[in-house]
Amino acid sequence: MNQFGKVSGVKLRAGLCGGRTVLTDVSFTAPYKIMKPFEKADGGIQVMPLCASAGIMSGDLQQFEYEVEEGANLELLSQSFEKIHRMEEGSAARTVSAHVAKNACLSYYPQPVIPFAGSAFDSTMEIYLEDESSRLFLMDILSCGRAVSGERFAYRRFSSKVSIWRGGELIYRDNCRYEPEIMAMEGLGMYEGFSHMANIFLTKGTAEGTRELQKEIRQLLDAEADCEGGVSLTASGDLAVRILGNRAQKLQNLAEEIKMKWEVFL
């Protein structure tokens, strides 16, 4: 348990006012607070939760809840790389839930995560899309740890379970659990010698537009000599992207390019 109480976190609700997205409800607990939203030219907003803590410590419990009302457009960012500090014992955990209404859009792309040696962290995310007009761009980047400090894959555990529902039907699940002491993290099917991995989920547009977007993403990835990646069409007709690389900034830049292409095809 952390010094700020049983649970630390943020609750946000975004809605429309005069054709522009605004925050209609905000609450948070230490060490978090919310910056004044950044307005976007398209009427949406970018929101950045701020954290006074140096990072995630043993015993930390975090809970984030987001609601995007009909027609609203919310982008969620983070202030810096997420540091999961060394833990002599115990672990830390986070839960994230989000609801995206009709004709609403949620973009969730925090800064990369750095799990320090000896750390153990469990993340659970559940996102509920009301129908096919509900849009979602979801990204996370996980590093191998502090490689320059000799902590390449030296963490105890990192687990992440992401579930996305549309109209009450499960359309995507990514359940990862990494334990470097017993897993060949550098091997085939894992990081394959790379140090960073990006996972991206994109909701579909029209069938033709989604296929064209898949083609353009594949071309973008093929053009990157220092990265390896792929893009898959899911059973629900959405897109899932996974990219391996050796620099967080490179993966972030690729994700931004993919996001811009996705916005064109919406």
Description:
- The chain has 266 residues and is mainly beta.
- The protein has one domain.
- It is built from 2 helices and 19 strands.
- It has helices at 207-222, 248-265; strands at residues 8-17, 20-28, 32-34, 38-39, 45-47, 49-51, 61-68, 73-76, 82-84, 92-100, 105-108, 113-115, 120-129, 135-143, 157-166, 169-178, 196-202, 228-233, 239-245.
- Strand 15 and strand 16 (169-178) form a beta hairpin.
- Helix 1 (207-222) runs antiparallel to helix 2 (248-265).
- The chain is globular and about 50 Å long.
- The chain starts with 7 loop residues before the first strand and ends with a helix.
Quick take:
The chain is built from 2 helices and 19 strands.
List keywords for this structure.
single chain; 266 residues; mainly beta; 7-stranded mixed beta sheet; 19 strands; globular
Q: Any chance you could write out the topology, listing elements then pairs?
A:
Layout: E1 8-17, E2 20-28, E3 32-34, E4 38-39, E5 45-47, E6 49-51, E7 61-68, E8 73-76, E9 82-84, E10 92-100, E11 105-108, E12 113-115, E13 120-129, E14 135-143, E15 157-166, E16 169-178, E17 196-202, H1 207-222, E18 228-233, E19 239-245, H2 248-265
Parallel strand pairs: 1-7, 5-8, 7-10, 8-11, 9-12, 10-13, 11-14, 13-15
Antiparallel strand pairs: 1-2, 3-6, 4-5, 14-17, 15-16, 17-19, 18-19
Helix pairs in contact: 1-2
What is the strand arrangement across the widest sheet? 4-5-8-11-14-17-19-18
H-E string: EEEEEEEEEEEEEEEEEHEEH
Main sheet makeup? 8 strands, mixed
Strand content: over 45%
**C-alpha termini separation:** 43 Å
The parts where pLDDT drops under 50 for at least 5 residues are none
Number of helices: 2
Please give the domain count: 1
Form type: globular
Roughly how much helix do the residues carry, as a percent range?
Answer: 10-25%
Radius of gyration: 18 Å
Give the helix/strand class. mainly beta
